[in-house]
């Protein structure tokens, strides 16, 4: 039989001091003495009995979801004398305090936690840790989970993110605010410190594998890290898309040309001799050459003279009676041109369709 008699807890400061009864809002320690349906009775040091019931049984980290008789627990006083003559207690309020304190310790110590993905939006993933809800921004996903969508279509990104719902992810806490009820986590941060002790610096040469191709460049995985090789750093010649040269899973070498936090900027072309340094040995002003039209634009043709050197034939250098590029040629056509400018430093070569030898 549970003793419902109210008692006073002795003040440890002096054996002669008056007993102090728990006050509203106090955090008290107790031992589970009886468990009923949606009710848990606690022995408060043998001096009083507390009751936790209904929604107050839930704690944010779910630490008390499988209580047994004799377990030690902490709870917050929400009523000093309920209708049963017991001290009304709450796991939920005490759990909230413990939960945020624990999260702060985890963040300070940079420990990993496991979260479950419960939802997704265009900005990232909704995650849950215990009963706490957090957010994992898309930018903080690991390279294995980052949605690489060539045209940046938000609906396509969301479609990829939704695939992770109900999955468990290992993350680190990077943002925390109890006042704003905000928990921000990062999967990418878990990669730090996991690269076999190797440190990197600008100028290092890495070997990696192409993991993704988008309009603006190629994502390359190396030593547990990921870098971006911008389209302008893939080759010395102009590319419409990285897939003009690269394929997914290609093994490549690249040079680190920039580092910011854990973001690496890479260059493949820096490891390839610049063909423009010897351009004057191959092409000279007024030289007549053959070239393949690669692209037709309103302002002219992009022309391939050889695999490494591309030139531009501007519409102003078309014959007077052929000022419409679309009527003069189409991609793949082979035409004769005259070299009118060579600018090695800027990697530019100008071509003309005027005044060609008969």
* Amino-to-carboxy terminus distance: 115 Å
CATH architecture of the largest domain: Beta Barrel
Order of strands across the widest beta sheet? 3-4-5-7-6
Multimerization state: single chain
Structural class: mainly beta
How confident is the prediction overall: mean pLDDT?
Answer: 84
Q: What is the rounded Rg?
A: 34 Å
Percent range of helical residues? under 10%
Range of strand content: 35-45%
List the helices and strands and how they pair.
Blueprint: E1 9-10, E2 19-20, E3 27-36, E4 39-44, E5 48-53, E6 72-79, E7 87-90, H1 91-109, E8 112-121, E9 124-129, E10 132-137, H2 154-161, E11 168-177, E12 182-186, E13 205-214, E14 217-222, E15 225-230, E16 251-260, E17 263-267, H3 279-282, E18 288-297, E19 300-304, E20 310-314, H4 325-328, E21 334-343, E22 348-352
Parallel strand pairs: 5-7, 15-17, 20-22
Antiparallel strand pairs: 1-2, 3-4, 3-6, 4-5, 6-7, 8-9, 8-11, 9-10, 11-12, 13-14, 13-16, 14-15, 16-17, 18-19, 18-21, 19-20, 21-22
Give keywords:
OB fold (Dihydrolipoamide Acetyltransferase, E2P); 358 residues; 22 strands; five-stranded antiparallel β-sheet; five-stranded mixed barrel; 4 helices; single chain; 4 domains; rod-shaped; mainly beta
């Amino acid at each position: 039989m549970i003793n419902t008699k109210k008692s006073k807890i002795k003040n440890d400061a002096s054996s002669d001091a008056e007993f102090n009864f728990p006050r509203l809002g106090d955090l008290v320690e107790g031992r589970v003495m009886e468990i009923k349906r949606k009710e848990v009775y606690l022995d408060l040091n043998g001096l009083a009995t507390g009751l936790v019931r209904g929604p107050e049984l839930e704690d944010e980290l779910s630490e008390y979801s499988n209580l047994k008789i004799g377990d030690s627990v902490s709870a917050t006083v929400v009523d000093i004398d309920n209708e049963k003559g017991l001290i009304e207690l709450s796991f939920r309020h005490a759990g909230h305090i413990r939960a945020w304190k624990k999260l702060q310790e985890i963040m300070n110590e940079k420990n990993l936690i496991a979260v479950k993905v419960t939802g997704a939006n265009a900005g990232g993933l909704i995650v849950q840790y215990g009963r706490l809800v957090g957010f994992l921004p898309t930018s903080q996903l690991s390279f294995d989970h980052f949605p690489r969508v060539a045209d940046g279509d938000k609906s396509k990104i969301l479609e990829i993110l939704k695939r992770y719902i109900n999955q468990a992810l290992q993350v680190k806490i990077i943002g925390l605010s109890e006042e704003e009820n905000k928990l921000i986590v990062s999967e990418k941060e878990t990669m730090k410190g996991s690269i076999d002790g190797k440190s990197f610096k600008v100028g290092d040469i890495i070997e990696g594998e192409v993991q993704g191709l988008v309009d603006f460049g190629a994502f390359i995985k190396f030593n547990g890290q990921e870098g971006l090789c911008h389209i302008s750093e893939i080759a010395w010649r102009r590319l419409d898309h990285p897939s003009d040269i690269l394929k997914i899973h290609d093994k490549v070498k690249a040079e680190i040309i920039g580092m910011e936090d854990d973001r690496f900027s890479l260059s493949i072309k820096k490891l390839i001799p610049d063909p423009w340094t010897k351009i004057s040995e191959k092409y000279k002003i007024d030289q007549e050459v053959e070239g393949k039209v690669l692209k037709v634009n309103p302002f002219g043709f992009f022309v391939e003279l050889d695999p490494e050197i591309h030139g531009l034939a501007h519409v102003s250098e078309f014959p007077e009676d052929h000022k419409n590029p679309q009527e003069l040629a189409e991609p793949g056509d082979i035409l004769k041109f005259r070299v009118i400018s060579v600018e090695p430093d800027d990697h530019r070569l100008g071509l003309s369709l005027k005044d060609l030898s008969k």
